[in-house]
Amino acid sequence: MDVPLRWIEDKRSVQGMLDHTHWSPAQSRVWVPALFSGLVVLMASRISLPVCMAEMAQDLQWDKREQGIILSSFFGGYIFTQVIGGHLADRYGGDSIQWMAALVWSLATLSMAFVAHVSVTMVLLVRFVTGLAQGVHYPSLLSLLSKRVPAAERNLVFGIISAGSAVGTIVAGGLGSALFGKGWQYMFLITGVVGIIWSLMLRTISVQYKHSVHYQLSERRSWKEKMAFAGVSKVPLPQQGIPWRKAFRNHAVLALLAGHFSCCLYAHTVKSWAAIYFHDTFPQQQETWLYNCLPWVFWAMSSVAGGWITNQMIAHGISITRVRKMVVFTSGIFPALCLLLMSALARSGGGFPLTLFIFIASLIFDGVHSSGTAVNASDLMPACAGALYGAASTVGTIPGVCGMALIGYILHVTSSWTLVFTIVCVVCAGGSLVFVVFGSGTPIVLPLDTNTK
Predict the structure, then answer these.
(1) Distance between CA atoms of 165 and 286, rounded to whole angstroms?
(2) CB-count exposure of residue 278 (10 Å: 0-12, 13-18, 19+)
(3) Mean pLDDT of 41-69
(4) Minimum mean pLDDT among 211-215, 241-245, 248-252, 349-353: which range?
(5) What is the mean predicted confidence (pLDDT) over 416-429?
(6) Buried b or exposed e, range 222-247, using 16+ CB within 10 angstroms
(7) In Å, what is the CA distance from 25 to each residue of 32, 42, 107, 150?
(8) Could you tell me the pTM of the whole model?
């Protein structure tokens, strides 16, 4: 059967086909390492300040309340660009959005080395801008993968790329430990320069890929040949509008938001405060790399293993819904319980080795979450996965904005890590259980509304 004439005459059809062309194996061998390295640099930039916080606070005379406000300022910017970043990625391509944003957050990170001594206000402003620019990264990444990677392979690919965030944490932690006492400014200089280099590299890869696909499509004369090359059964047209009101009344979407909120609270707490917790609880521990780096090695392995295991489960007939619920339960309940156990050990005089072991176990359980709510948006609304993930990530940034400042206030007033970890545990358990009850991995069908933005 021939392709309808209206598709042939609609110029958007070619762009739609280009947007949905899957990577070949050779192209995947270029893109996956590039995106992996991007998350390495992004996460190193993001946690450069938390890693250096103890030294900077001593140098610049910041108390716990000020530290909490500074840590939350990143998320104050991060929350504003999630949805718009996903929408722009769905419309113009996740790779283009990523490299432009990376140039901005790299320059902002670089500037921290020069403005931190000026005032706390300048620090807040730089971190706010860094958050604004980094907020588009994950929605753009998910949008890109939903178009370039077949659904059957997406869990593993996303798990491999997501491991880059752990490697970035390891790199930043190791670099911070190596530079401890030598000048925290070098951390921001190094991560900023490397980020600029990566953004320019991704731009080059993106331009070369688009030129290559355009040429190969033009070489195929018939529309059937073009569609066969692109790997689509019909010519996909660009997304016209998202019925947000209807989407947010859907129980599966609401469950995604609740589950993502809870897992983000854990992630933000650990990435922003774990180094400070170990510094305060075990001040005699000089080998800071043991808690800044080592645990994230296991997180990275868990992320990749989780992606492979979930792929195998789906391939063996277990429903996507059941797989997602199992992952969210595992990555939501057990990590939080480990935090509670850590605080109990601290109260009873537990030693550093056992506390570190439990922290590592917590991150191993959390590592599999890259196959849970992180990819659930592409299950529910594949055509606009970036925008939906952006909405979920916006909700997930709320605990970063409010929670990090609240944690700083609690520690300033009470000095109680037990209270902090108890709050985190309760919220994580609640959000995970909501997803287990109401979550889904089945695509939802919503009528498009071209007037809904």
Answers:
(1) 25
(2) buried
(3) 88
(4) 211-215
(5) 91
(6) ebeebbebbeeeebbeebeebbbeeb
(7) 10, 25, 34, 12
(8) 0.72
